[in-house]
Amino acid sequence: MTVYRTRTRDWSTPSSTPAPLAEPAVPLPPAGRLADELFLIAHDDVTGRLRAPAGVVGRGLATAILADLALASAVAVAVSGMVVTGTAAPGAVDPWGRTVLRWIDTDTPHPPAAWIDRLAGHAYRSVADRLTAAGLVRPRTVRRWWRRDTVYPPVDTNVAAWPWARLSMRVRRRTRLSVHDSTLARLCVATGLGGHILGVDTLTARRQLRQLLTPVPPGVDQLVRHLAATDGWSRHSQHDRRSRHGRRGRR
How many other CB atoms are there within 10 angstroms of residue 129's CB atom? Predict the structure, then answer.
């Protein structure tokens, strides 16, 4: 069995001309949903344990669900800054997505940050159930001292590893990312999972990543920015400030 692994490299050194990227001969997650792929990246591709805090992953998945709907033209961010339903064909949205659309359509208008917060508590379980039903993960209960947790080991490690391996290979080889992968990469950075696609999640690596991103639709961009403002790049900025203060203190 082939397991996709990538090397960590120093972004400050130039890379040689890359070879063409080979796609794996294994089934990929259904429909290439951002939420499905972010879920797989957020879990260890062998043990199924979370790689980031559950609350942050839940908010990331909520944003990914809204971004999936936005890319399908099912939701949009209006000029007023509120999330509204769009004009997608019924077949473009899965049952959980239709539930989210009913909530948005019947509730009072809310901005992206409010919908991310409101969906965060439902997003994790809904995506986990979808991937379980699709036969991609197999839930398992584990005991941790005083509580029991559910982990989601993959049925096929290749399938589970492919989303982050695909991003990692393309970033390492300086390949321009598609709209889908540009959104997924930004979601990873915002949820603290950037190291799994960048090799080393440093300021330099993130600058290199930004040069590879393709512009995404305005509604999708606003959704990810709202997530990043609280869970992602702001955290990195605080870390960078602490690092600079620490260096000054040692002088």
Answer: 13
Burial of 205 (0-12, 13-18, 19+ CB in 10 A): buried
The pLDDT value recorded for residue 63 is 97
What domains does the chain contain, in order, with CATH numbers?
30-246 (1.10.3630.10)
Question: CB neighbours (10 Å) of residue 52?
Answer: 17
Highest mean pLDDT: which range of 1-5, 67-71, 234-238: 67-71
Buried b (16+ CB within 10 A) or exposed e, 83-116: bebbebeeeebbebbeebbeebeeeeebebbebb
Classified as helix, coil or strand, 83 is strand
Burial class of residue 154, CB neighbours in 10 A (0-12, 13-18, 19+):
buried
Whole-number Cα distances in Å, 22 to 25, 48, 102, 166, 225: 9, 25, 41, 9, 32
- pTM, whole model, 2 decimals? 0.80
